[in-house]
Amino acid sequence: MRLNVSLEEAQEIVLGMLRPIEREAILHLPDSLGRVLSRDIKAPFNVPAFDKSPLDGYAVRAEDTKMAASDNPVILHVIEEVPAGSVPTKRVEPGSAIRIMTGAPIPEGADVVVRFEDVEEAADTIKVSQPLASGANIIPAGDDVAEGEVVASTGTRLNAPLIGMLASLGISSVPVYQRVRVAIINTGNELLDPSEKWLPGKIYNSNRYLLEARCKELGAEPVYLDSVPDEETAVAESLQGALEVADLVITTGGASVGQYDVVKNAINAVGAEILFWKIALKPGMPTAVARKDGKVIFSLSGNPAAAMITFDLLAVPALKKLSGMKEVLPPTITGILVNAFQKRSPQRRMLRAKWKKQNGSDLIELTGKQSNDVLKSLVECNILIDVPAGTPSLAVGQHVSAYVVGNLTDSLVGELKC
Amino acid sequence: MRLNVSLEEAQEIVLGMLRPIEREAILHLPDSLGRVLSRDIKAPFNVPAFDKSPLDGYAVRAEDTKMAASDNPVILHVIEEVPAGSVPTKRVEPGSAIRIMTGAPIPEGADVVVRFEDVEEAADTIKVSQPLASGANIIPAGDDVAEGEVVASTGTRLNAPLIGMLASLGISSVPVYQRVRVAIINTGNELLDPSEKWLPGKIYNSNRYLLEARCKELGAEPVYLDSVPDEETAVAESLQGALEVADLVITTGGASVGQYDVVKNAINAVGAEILFWKIALKPGMPTAVARKDGKVIFSLSGNPAAAMITFDLLAVPALKKLSGMKEVLPPTITGILVNAFQKRSPQRRMLRAKWKKQNGSDLIELTGKQSNDVLKSLVECNILIDVPAGTPSLAVGQHVSAYVVGNLTDSLVGELKC
């Protein structure tokens, strides 16, 4: 067991031992929103299905126009006029032309389209006054999507436009990974369910609801196990059950110095191996990760902000990797701090903040009090400022770097421009 | 009926006549993710519930230390030592002190906490060598959240941290607006369902699946009505049914010049009033909006990209307003174009693109072909570049402005930093 690892070491240890779960499901397309493809999807046909014209004009043979010049125009006979929405029925033979509209299939025999304004039109003929290049003004079949082309690859999460595109290809069901099952165990004698009446010395269990909802946002399936008291046997029993039903196990509470033995002993009792304890990070220092039979147990702090921050930075990448997603690590963004943070940071610290734009600049605004027990500042938080160890207080106007953990669009505001 | 309105005029017309639907539901907290609060939620108690100490120290009376000086220290008797996690049971009487830990309630009688290192500790006494200010080192009850304070206001969409915060306040159910019901009618003789075998001249109906999924992403409930042929009676019947069951009606197809009469006559036939036809926008020009009994009908182009773009810029704000959300208009962002767009834009144009970050700069990248019938470039699109009418071709490096229509985080990539 390692002690005091960095966040990056922790991520590397965890991601290094996980791979996507192998359970697949075939879903009806409308039910696949937010799910992750378990196989590459290939186009069953070309789009467009045939060579087509990008403009209104005449389909002709380039060969026929080889000798054309302004003083020696070539005259071609118009053998068919195809209205909009219809398709040609004849073949362009030497000396002939077919009038077609934008989007129409190129008639057989033709290898170039000349636009109306580039010819001289008469009753049943056209005059071409310059040689035309074979292939000009023809959109080849498969130009947008080629038959057999991978249009969506394994690991892609299905969004609305992708569902629309697959529908346009006549794909009505898709192979996806089954949802990752995440067991959540909240430990603590002091926990009350929000539906219970408050009692002195007790606190409401927020971690259950917060982490369940976060799992759902990520497309995972939370499996909730009743909260358990700070007793080794109770925690071990719950862990044992969790490992049987879930792909990933999260515990909260009982991970700090004083309480640590309970969870540690429970982890040992179920035969799991603790890989590391303590991350050099505030909040979230008392985090432990263990493994059993390829499954990972994250033992997070019981403080809601610490639990959420370590969940987002460490458990979410694991969950995404198990889900089969390709991009699993939180991206970073930099910006200018718009409010000060007075405390020094002897240890590396994550501050709850939101990203905003003003006159093209990236602004980063703390969302409120940063104590471990304060949930309010998490509500609008979509980034976590990464404050390196040894940083003095942060001043307004300072450049900072942050992990993106939420939807950046949420903190932008639209305006009616008229 | 107005003709050729601007996008902003169209948004103003539509938003001006809508207000949130009034149907409420009370949901169990875990079921409320993504829903919109229909009432303000007030804190039922103070957080913290009592005055508490932000540090390990001694709770004393400021009055007792008034005359304290380094050459005249005040000696106070330590009458109780409260271990971590426990609460004081005694009252601080004149001349006494109680030893408390971070987070402990301030004992009765005390009005200041002095930290361990600022006193001289002996067996049962402490020496204070300077006057202490009443109220120092005390976090007052309600400092984080005051009883009765609005912690989440009407119109807020519930995310995971907000659900966690409400749980921490002992709130186990919440009032939300019912989901907005959006009827989707796809018109067109040429439409096939993706489950059907392809036939010449037919195209697969992608608009149904694309718009249904988009509605779900926004927390709305799509109500799908079978696709209908380009016949006035069939469209009118479908519209009539849609107006009866839905809060908002979307039609696709039959809105362009040639086909327009079908939808227009159908709208007239159900007694709806057409407010405008045609938006000065490409793609999406052939868009009409009608109203009946306060309900809005959006008649969108049948081309998938045009349908999606006008849905995002015009129908989504309407849907969000009906949903009760506060921010309904798409925000804008500016950035540097990384690939060229060769065509001129005699009309205002929206280009499918994605936002990226590189070395702190906002980059905007076209996601592919921009034709109305190309769906591929919608898949990764999270912004729409707003190209003003009369713009020549766009060059690499040019500054452009765009509407944000997707999750900006989706186009950022994380990296393991170690």
From TrEMBL, chains A, B:
It holds the Pfam family MoCF_biosynth. It comes from Thermacetogenium phaeum (strain ATCC BAA-254 / DSM 26808 / PB). PANTHER family: GEPHYRIN, MOLYBDOPTERIN BIOSYNTHESIS PROTEIN. GO terms for biological process: Mo-molybdopterin cofactor biosynthetic process. The keyword Membrane does not apply. Keywords: Magnesium, Metal-binding, Molybdenum, Molybdenum cofactor biosynthesis, Transferase. SUPFAM superfamilies: MoeA C-terminal domain-like, MoeA N-terminal region -like, Molybdenum cofactor biosynthesis proteins. Catalyzes the insertion of molybdate into adenylated molybdopterin with the concomitant release of AMP. This is Molybdopterin molybdenumtransferase. NCBIfam families: Glp_gephyrin, molyb_syn. It catalyses: adenylyl-molybdopterin + molybdate = Mo-molybdopterin + AMP + H(+). It is an enzyme of class 2 (transferase). Belongs to the MoeA family. Its EC number is 2.10.1.1. GO terms for molecular function: metal ion binding; molybdopterin molybdotransferase activity. Its cofactor is Mg(2+). Residues 183-321 form the MoaB/Mog domain. Pathway: Cofactor biosynthesis; molybdopterin biosynthesis.
